[in-house]
Specification:
Keywords: Acetylation, Dioxygenase, Iron, Metal-binding, Oxidoreductase, Transit peptide. This is MBL fold metallo-hydrolase. It comes from Noviherbaspirillum pedocola. The structure is a single chain. The protein has one domain: 4-Layer Sandwich (Metallo-beta-lactamase, Chain A), CATH 3.60.15. Helix content is about 20%, strand content about 25%. It contains 6 helices and 13 strands. It has a 7-stranded mixed beta sheet with strand order 6-5-4-3-2-1-13, with helices on one face. A 6-stranded mixed beta sheet has the order 7-8-9-10-11-12.
C-alpha cells in the first residue's frame, strides 16, 4: 500500500492518500479544497489515478475538495449514506466495505461529533475523523452532535479495535501525526483512563468553545460536496483560496 499523510494548515486538517500498488488506483480521505493542487501533484508523482474521495462527515471547518476533484480527476464521491447527499456517487454504510484495487476499507458509523460521522479501518490503521483525536475528540455541540453517542462510538467501536492499531485523526493542532488505540485508551484526557459517561458529559458541557468561524459557509457548501460560497467575507477567503504551499506529515 502507498500511504501519505498530507496537512492543510488553515483548518489543521489531515488528508490521507491511500494507493493500491497493483491497480494504480487511489483514494483521498477528507480532502480540503484549498489543497487540491497539492493532491493532484502528489498523485501524479506517485503515478496513481484517483478513484474515490471519501469524507468522514459533513465538515464545519473547511470545504471538501470532493466535487472539484471529480471534475478534474474523474474520481467518484463517497460519503456517509446517512447524510443523504444527492451529489454523492456512493453512500457509505457500515457493513459494506469499499474496495479500491487490493485495498478494503471497512466503514464504522461513529456518531457523536455529528450524527452522520464515520470512521474507516484499513489494515493496521483507523482513520477516525473528528470522533477520536490525539488526546482529545471533536466537539458535540452542533450538527446534531451528542456527547452520549460519541462516548458509545469510541468505547463500543473504536476502543474495541486491536490495541496496536494506529489512529490517524482528521486534525491535530500540536504537530502530532499518529497515535494508537492503546495510547488513547490509556491517556486520552476526555475518553480514556476509565472515564465514565457522566465524567465525559461534564467535560463536554464545560468546554465553552466559541461558535465556529466558518460553519455557516462550510456546512451548506459541503452538503453540495464542496462548493465555495460566492459571498464569502474577505476575512474568510483563506478557507477557499488555493494554497501556495502545503506541508506533508
Amino acid at each position: 500500500m502507498i500511504f501519505r499523510q498530507l496537512f492543510e494548515p488553515v483548518s489543521s486538517t489531515y488528508t490521507y492518500l491511500l494507493g493500491c500498488e497493483e491497480s494504480g488506483q487511489a483514494l483521498l480521505i477528507d480532502p480540503v479544497i484549498t489543497a487540491m493542487d497539492r493532491y493532484l501533484a502528489e498523485l501524479g508523482k506517485l503515478g496513481l489515478q484517483l478513484a474515490y474521495t471519501v469524507d468522514t462527515h459533513i465538515h464545519a471547518d473547511h470545504i471538501t475538495a470532493a466535487l472539484e476533484l471529480k471534475k478534474r480527476a474523474g474520481s467518484r464521491i463517497a460519503a456517509p449514506a446517512f447524510d443523504h447527499l444527492p451529489c454523492t456517487d456512493i453512500g457509505i454504510e457500515e457493513g459494506k466495505p469499499l474496495q479500491i484495487g487490493s485495498l478494503t476499507i471497512i466503514a464504522l458509523h461513529t456518531p457523536g461529533h455529528t450524527d452522520g460521522h464515520f470512521s474507516y479501518v484499513l489494515g493496521d490503521r483507523v482513520f477516525t475523523g473528528d470522533a477520536l483525536l490525539i488526546d482529545g475528540c471533536g466537539r458535540t455541540d452542533f450538527q446534531n452532535g451528542d456527547a452520549d453517542a460519541l462516548y458509545r462510538s469510541v468505547h463500543e467501536k473504536l476502543f474495541t479495535l486491536p490495541d496496536d492499531m494506529l489512529v490517524y485523526p482528521a486534525h491535530d493542532y500540536q504537530q502530532r501525526h499518529v497515535s494508537s488505540i492503546a495510547q488513547e485508551k490509556a491517556r486520552n484526557p476526555r475518553l480514556g483512563g476509565g472515564r465514565s459517561l457522566e465524567e465525559f458529559r461534564d467535560i463536554m458541557d464545560k468546554l465553552n468553545l466559541p461558535y465556529p468561524a466558518f460553519i455557516d459557509h462550510a456546512v451548506p457548501g459541503n452538503r453540495q460536496c464542496g462548493v465555495c460560497p460566492a459571498d464569502l467575507p474577505e476575512k474568510l477567503e483563506k478557507y477557499c483560496r488555493q494554497m501556495t504551499a502545503s506541508l506533508q506529515g
